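Subject — a protein and its fold
Fields — amino acid sequence, structure tokens
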Amino acid sequence: MGLFDRFKKGLTKTREKIVQGFRAVLPFGQPIDENILNSLEDTMLAADMGPAVVTALINDVRTAWQKGRLSETQDILPHLRERVIERWPEQDRQLARAETKPTVVLVTGVNGSGKTTSIAKLAKHLTDQGEKVMVAACDTYRAAAVEQLTIWAERIGVPIIKQAQGSDPGAVAYDACESALAKDIDVLIVDTAGRLHTQDHLMRELAKIQRVIDKRIPGAPHEVLLVLDATIGQNAVNQARIYCEHVSISGIFLAKLDGSAKGGVVIGIRDQLGVPVKFVGLGETPDDIEPFDPREFASALFAE
């Protein structure tokens, strides 16, 4: 199955919602007018694309219509698809890399967002590319979190660094850095405690873990991924905005995209946060991960 097909399958719920909405407001062969543009705007907002993005896209369609580049309703979707693709610069979607290994990827997010499963997917994805991967269980508050990550690590075949429940997360992170250096690891993925963006002490602890890692491996973490749950739509953007105030987030892993009718939030994230979506989760298994590709995403999103 090609990337377009995987995106298309994963975006089924979102696409059905969007395409049904578009069909209702863009009957084939109708001349474009302001009423059609207003109805289109409402449909796009309902797809969780975010108010700022929708306003910009509608204004773009309006300008193209007024200049005679678009005339009928069937001209709108191809135009929108290209405008959506243009909103993502190429360079910022790659996973950041250290000049000398290991590359350290710190992963954070709210409990229930799909963080542990997303780490497993990322570890599997990198292992499949021939990289030596290690994971660190720095969510020491919940025994279940360490157990779950251990099960995934064993299943995928990657080493895991962990300590007893209640251990200092910074100490686990330090141990993991030492071990990654000693074992010539390519990528160290560090799990952190799921935290609400309102829990100041946990947000401060996240900054402390970053400092500990940087002390042992200068310049690390090289990537800070925030896992967001696609099923909560614009609320995910609000969560991310507050995270970005405390921690320098460099990329988004959008989980549960296949279970959501709110996949349009991908477009809003880039615009409202200035943080690129780097990976998406499209299913339950460790293989259900894809690096984010805006052209394939937009083509799948607007596919009939």
